[in-house]
Task: structure prediction
Amino acid sequence: MANKALLVRLEAKPGKEGAVEDFLRSALPLVEQEPGTKPWFAVQFGPSTYGIIDAFPDDAARDTHLNGPVGKALGERADELFATPPEISYLDVLANKL
Result:
């Protein structure tokens, strides 16, 4: 069971919406190589608001993901793509159906 999760909210800079969508799509192959990251979703909340929702079996898997390639790329491109720093919420999963 996935006991831990993340919700990452991302606000694109004006005119960078397409680049944010491309960035999120390009992250999928990297996440597919992380055995502890299940599920993983890149989502759009509104015209310029995006997010990542993912879940993990434990804190160790969540930390591995945050320190992995996608987390690093997010940090490296934050100033270029986002109007505000990514807002990361650490969540505890109460129930799920995967």
Observations:
- The chain is about 40% helix and 30% strand.
- The CA atoms of residues 32 and 40 lie 9 Å apart.
